[in-house]
Design a protein that fits this description.
Blueprint: H1 13-20, E1 27-28, H2 40-48, H3 62-75, E2 86-90, H4 92-102, E3 110-114, H5 120-128, E4 131-135, E5 152-156, H6 168-181, E6 184-188, H7 216-219, E7 226-231, H8 233-236, E8 243-248, H9 250-263, H10 269-280, H11 283-306, E9 309-311, E10 318-322, H12 327-335, E11 339-340, E12 342-343, E13 355-358, H13 363-374
Parallel strand pairs: 1-11, 3-4, 3-5, 5-6, 6-7
Antiparallel strand pairs: 2-8, 7-8, 9-10, 10-13, 12-13
């Protein structure tokens, strides 16, 4: 029997009940689920593909994989991505959870990931029977031996929950290290379009998103041993579509594909068509980012007025905030205002004195939350 942690969100239920008792009602800023409409261009594409009596391709249609490669060139600064190195997935969480298993990892193998991290990296290692190891740096792994070298290293930039962004130089050092030690690197980049850092004049001409593990300045021109995991849930309000993909090393992608074909892990045909439409339309992404930017500014002011310090939070859909106290104390104080946030402890021991506050609520709810925090 695999040893899995308790589902963390269950422990938040008493605080949700407490927040719900507020006279003004509950404002739930704990989960990053989109609340804005799915773009019309995507809805139209889904409707047009509604007649889908046959089985879809596990590999995705050639034009879908081409669309992903084109998007990487236009939005991520990754020219020449081989469409053979693209694989659609049924949302990104299932790939994160099953990647160690799909790669054939098991007992005795190590999966490393950031100390403050999305819990599914840990869960995925456990599902495979591998050993999860949270680390805050490569040196934290100590002197490497055959038994202590990870088989898989997860990066997450922009980070969930911290919003920290890894730069080109950092990513390049990780890739160089990984190749010297035979480690596969998977980079979860699902918040890449939501970069809040000011752009310096010298950065003009750079991609409008955070750096990718597949950037040629990182890779030296080869995607060997590298995977980028991406989802359209955040940038395009497609969480309900489960529209995501992995891209990178064609050899690794083929390895994943062979297992997924046997397991029937196929993205539905109408979603594949909707995904092509979403990737081709930059307008809705720019508009959605502007919505989140306005909400972020409003919420930042309220959080500051309440006395919380915001750390990192350079990109993504969350404020990583701290009152320099146990996160559950902060969660309780916020619940008394009718505001529900996520305790940093959900993301590992490194988050025990932070809370994660989501921007994914309506303008009215964000404004009300900021008002309560500022009162």
């Amino acid at each position: 029997m695999r040893s899995l942690p308790d589902f963390p969100w269950d422990s938040l239920a008493p605080y949700k009940a407490r927040a719900s008792s507020h006279a003004g009602g509950l404002i739930d800023l704990s989960i990053g689920t989109p609340v804005d409409p799915t773009p019309q261009v995507v809805q139209d594409a889904l409707r047009a593909a509604a007649d889908a009596p046959g089985y879809p391709q596990t590999y995705g249609t050639p034009d879908l994989r081409e669309a992903v490669a084109t998007w990487f060139a236009a939005r991520r600064g990754v020219e020449g991505l081989d469409p053979d190195g693209v694989l659609p997935t049924i949302g990104s969480k299932e790939l994160v959870a099953w990647l160690p298993t799909l790669l054939g990892l098991g007992s005795g193998d190590i999966v490393a990931f950031p100390r403050a991290a999305y819990p599914t990296y840990d869960v995925g290692a456990r599902l495979a029977g591998a050993t999860p190891v949270p680390v805050d740096s490569l040196t934290a792994l100590g002197p490497l031996t055959r038994s202590t070298t990870p088989k898989l290293l997860w990066l997450n930039s922009p980070s969930n929950p911290t919003g920290k962004v890894l730069g080109i130089e950092h990513l390049a050092k990780v890739v160089d290290w990984a190749r010297r030690h035979g480690v596969i690197v998977a980079s979860d980049e699902c918040y890449a379009e939501l970069d809040w850092r000011p752009r310096e004049p010298a950065a003009h001409g750079e991609p409008p998103t955070t750096p990718s593990i597949l950037d040629p300045r990182v890779t030296g021109g080869s995607h060997e041993g590298l995977l980028c995991v991406y989802s359209l849930s955040k940038q395009s309000n497609l969480a309900g579509y489960r529209a995501a993909f992995a891209a990178g090393d064609p050899v690794l992608i083929r390895e994943l594909l062979e297992v997924r074909k046997h397991a029937g892990m196929m993205m539905p045909w109408p979603v594949q068509r909707a995904m092509i439409a979403a990737l081709a339309d930059e307008t809705h992404v720019v508009e959605q980012k502007a919505r989140y930017a306005a909400r972020r500014a409003t919420l930042l002011a309220g959080v500051a007025a309440y006395g919380l310090r915001v750390d990192d939070s350079e990109a993504g859909l969350y404020l990583w905030a701290s009152a320099d106290e146990d996160c559950w104390i902060t969660i309780g104080r916020l619940a008394d205002l009718g505001v529900l946030a996520a305790p940093g402890a959900f993301y590992g021991a490194a988050g025990a004195r932070h809370v994660r506050i989501a921007l994914t609520a309506t303008d009215a709810h964000i404004a009300e939350a900021a008002a309560r925090l500022s009162a």
